Amino acid sequence: MEIIDGNQVAATIIAELKAEVATFSGRKPCIALVRVGDDPASISYVKKKQATAAEIGMESRLFLPPVTITQAELCTLIDQLNADDTVDGILVQSPLPKGIEEVAVFRRIAAHKDVDGFHTLNLGKLAQEDETGFVACTPAGIMELLARANVTLAGKHVVVLGRSLIVGKPAALLAVQRKVWANATVTICHSQTANLPALTRQADVLIAAIGKAEFVTADMVKPGVVVIDVGVNRVPDASRKTGYRLTGDVHFPTVSPLCSKITPVPGGVGPMTVAMLMKNTVKAYRQSRAAA
Ligand code: NAP
């Protein structure tokens, strides 16, 4: 069994981006980070994004509207960033306060600056296999992890647990593409799927993204499976200072001995998400320069 080390792969991608950015003359790629309110998890995610941008030699600009901002005011800020030629990518950190419709805000971001890949146009481009679009960072990170761990998907059965727009659906759309690195046969499972363990047992590659701690157990996988565990769940743990530990959607102690490869939680998919956000921003920069 091999552990796929997401920290190591993400560090390699960051080093590649740093080398590429160093070759750019003049203005460097710039990401605008919009964080509404003071959600503790959002604060730490945005800090990590700022630090990674700095490490690569990119610019990041932080916008911190108060939790009381209205949807219309937030859209005005996005319009300003859309119009600013020195901003290549815009990230609005989720979750947004109650009363603000997230999808409407994501759609407001100009598609060519939508480095999170949530805009309708970018989801459409993903379905059309149009590589000028932006793929959401977590599913893009999953594919990079698989490729760099030398997992071939062609002809394999990929089972995706979860059908969210930010992970499950785009991951499935990527795996099924007519590309040498994809060409998988894909099954998507969700809460209404009947006889789910019978399907997961068929998986050559199992991507678990449901947000249920240790849901996938040893009886649900076949020996030799490659498991990508996307879940990030807090489980109460009195032995920890924080009072909780992080766990994935897979019961690692019993499932991992059956796997040929598996990602850990933490240290698997998580670090890839930030690396792919930066990769998308560098792509947006390249595309805007090419169009200028
Ligand atoms: P989500 O929007 O809540 O979607 C969960 C999906 O799982 C839904 O499609 C749901 O089905 C399905 N599901 C829930 N319970 C199920 C069950 N018992 N059996 C089968 N399917 C079930 O979650 P998400 O945003 O995709 O995130 C999934 C997990 O990934 C979370 O733990 C999240 O924290 C983690 N995540 C990690 C990263 C990272 O960077 N590492 C990034 C994003 C998300 P229905 O559609 O039928 O409701």
Could you explain the architecture of this structure?
This protein has two domains: 24-110, 3-Layer(aba) Sandwich (Rossmann fold), CATH 3.40.50.10860; 137-270, 3-Layer(aba) Sandwich (Rossmann fold). The chain contains ten helices and eleven strands. The model has no long low-confidence stretch (mean pLDDT 97). The chain is 39% helix and 15% strand.
Task: Describe this protein with a few key phrases.
292 residues; alpha/beta; Rossmann fold; six-stranded parallel β-sheet; binds NADP nicotinamide-adenine-dinucleotide phosphate
What order do the SSEs take from the amino end to the carboxyl end, as H and E?
EHEHEHEHHHEHEHEEEEHEH
Q: If you compute it from the alpha carbons, what radius of gyration comes out, rounded to the nearest whole angstrom?
A: 19 Å
Number of helices: 10
Rounded mean pLDDT score: 97
Would you count the extended β strands for me? 11
Oligomer: single chain
Small molecules bound: NADP nicotinamide-adenine-dinucleotide phosphate
Q: Give the termini distance in whole angstroms.
A: 49 Å
- Unreliably modeled segments: none
The largest sheet, given as strand count, sense and whether it forms a barrel, is: 6 strands, parallel
- As laid out across the biggest beta sheet, the strand order is 1-11-8-7-5-6
- Overall number of structural domains: 2
Q: In terms of structural class, how would the helical and strand content be classed? A: alpha/beta
